[in-house]
Amino acid sequence: MSTFNLRVNGQNHTVDVDAGTPLLYLLSDDLALRGPKFGCGLGQCGSCTVIVNGQAVRSCVTPIETIGTSEVITLESLGTPEKPHPIQKAFIDEQAMQCGFCINGVIMTAKAFLDRNPRATEAQIQQAMANVLCRCAANSRILNAIHKYAQTVKP
Amino acid sequence: MKRRSFLKATGVLIVGFSASSVAEFTAQAPGFNGTGSNSLDSWLAIAADGGVTFFTGKCELGTGLYTAQVQLIAEELCVPLNRVKLIQCDTALTPDQGTTSGAQSHPTNFNQANLAQACATAREALKQLASTRLSVSADRLDVKDGVVSVKSDASQKVTYGDLIGGKKFNLALDANAKRKPAGEWTILGKPIPRLDIPAMATGQFEYVHNVRVPGMLHGQVVRPPSLGASVMSIDEGSIRNLPGVVKVVVKKNFVGVVAEKPWQAIQAATKLKVEWTAGTVLPNQAGFHDFMRNQKQTRDTLQVNAKDVDEKLSAASKVVKATYRYPYQMHGSFASSCAVADVQPGGATIWSATQAVFPLRSSAAMVLGLRAQDVHVIFKMGSGCYGCNSADTVSYDAAILSQAVGRPVRVQLSRKDEMISENYGYAFLLDEKAAVGADGTIIAWEHEAWSPVYGNRPGANQPGNVITGMLAGFEPAAFAARSPAPEPTAFANNSNATPSYYRGGTGTISSVRVLTHNIRSPFFTGPLRSPERLQNTFAHESFMDEIAAAVAADPVAHRLKHLADARLINVVNAAAMAANWDTRPSPKPGNRRSGTVSGRGVSCVLYEGDNGYCAMVAEVDVNQDTGAVIVRRLVIAEDCGPISNPDGLRNQLEGGALQGISRALLEEVTWDDSKVTSIDWRTYHPLFLGADIPKIETVLLNRTDARANGAGETAVTVTPAAIANAIFDATGARVRDVPFTPDRVKAALAARPL
Fold first, then answer.
1. What's this model's pTM, rounded to 2 decimal places?
2. B8 Cβ partners below 8 Å, 6+ apart?
3. CB distance A99–B384 less than 8 Å?
């Protein structure tokens, strides 16, 4: 075991984990966060996505030691059911999910992309979501919700 | 927590009920939908503050059922939505309603029985109590927001909490308690936003994957590389130096490891050296459909057997024939399955995303050597399951590992373990043959199909029906060959093996024979959304299109000509009208034989012969140079009886249709001579968010006078045929092998007559 200092959602944490442990396990097990989730463990579906330095990062294949002093942002830090972040509100308004398990990856990937590319076209947004999966196939509502949020970030 | 103490905690003082006493109240025959309960107190409890706690044996799986049931309760019991607490599927708390599956939740809980009838019974009982309390006859009372008041003098009133708070009703369900007429609904039937989505969108929702129990360890399994392989030797020394390993657990051919942390368990499972015997040699995938046809040991079933089919086929001036092939497809759940179990000598608790808490209680007890009543199964939602993913098998995994270490253990399967040994959706080979008269009328229809089966849902007593139970020493359900098939008795179309055009069902054709053969599958199989129904409907609805083309008839008109059921006719007409259907035979005249062309196709079904009407029009573009198919537009018309929540229904239809596209165009389990090679999202191809998707329009026919049907499985059922028919319309090429990959489309294009 090694000790790592990590900043997650504005708070500092010191955790004991084996070197090489992917960030996801630390977030969902040691810190018991519910946003980032294990879907495939291979970086293929997006379920584990968190935002680090403004970039969407697949935490299931990101070794903890590569995070350094960067802050990790997870879905639960954006907003709450009572006061959702605009992108979360767009998904609630559009009822854009079924089982909801994929929504962490969808929202975090879309948010990171749109915050960096506020003028993105619909085609560019869909390209940015190309490696994110929803097995309930709520694709049309999900894309509608992302476009709705995109309108709010457009300069 | 036992039900008694649970109810105390919710403010209800005296309720005598235990899980085992459910069996005393037999509302219906045990089976698919369980025993239910005829005792009102097993469905609800009202606290002194008027808060209502309900108990249902049908759970949310991502379909919106939780919200729909809360709407039903609030409507029927006349209480505000936010006063309802709904407990789902817990063997210590809820009635045994069997399995949440098969589009049975609405038929079971939204008609004149079970949950809906409990609500109506309770409302009428409360009115009676108020009548006594207020000394006013019940017909002079109004009920609103949990308050019963006198119609002529609203100041005379009493609350539900005052009438019954903390006490039992001690009543049986009253079959005569009237349901509220749909015309009076203000909550049910409305597009109420789902109650669980805000927590999901903000990362606060607790899935089974988030369950954390004090002292919990983490397990992983080591599956055999091939089905049928047995353990020869295990070298525990191979992981001796790894951190955190608690124990290697072996139970016959079940192998797993337990560690302090999840990543440690994954490392240990990956590195543990296990030698296995060679497993079953698999039949060649390319020839698998011929392999099925050539099996001698089959289980044959005749669904319909008109005696004049052969005679009519041989006498007909025109006979149309076609053979369709469907692959194994997997549930491939978005999240690999997960469960937490705490098994102690006196009893066990299992947190599981199973669709069947009571059956799992019994089958897990068999695996653990415990009594069923000493096992407590608590449903916690997983990711969308769509049938029989690994939720049950991982519950056994966690339970076996917990029993071995005496501490709670959480297991979440690896992606590969989820994919290589789940219960796949059935592959199919389907032969269709029809005799057609001079005027185009179909005179006889013959359908013969082959499909492989092995294992299934475990049910109450067959843990060997899924991989972990089998590895731990339990046999899957025996394959009982039976040939020839016995003569059919009463007609039912549960698997849609019989085309909609049969006179005994929804159509006009009398001379129909439907013969099916099950063979033993080399892989585990189980119900994947619309099991058999989708494969049969793909063949029937493609074939109906082939018949229409053979007699130069419009595909919609030819369907209508052979349909007799008004509701099925209505959805076909509604979809065609909304799609602005271009009435003419297929293929579309004037389309070029190269480049990109477009076309439209139609398909319809009465799901399970009695459980939801659906018709779809698909519009596609086909790139004839690359073979790529893009679905541009889908119009879906649905009649599932009274609609509980129109937005929830639309969400189901849209998701079902897009899953249908995924299954029609992309999904196929692959294997080599010894093992499955679809092991992740690079080797099994799903519909990612980057894929082209169609504009989807839904037409909802709200039949409030009819019984509530299921709606979760209709749209997916009709999608593959609608797409295949649209491809034919666009190109004149018939695709009969699912999935319609570019290579298969190009092969069909090359096979077109000049």
1. 0.96
2. none
3. yes
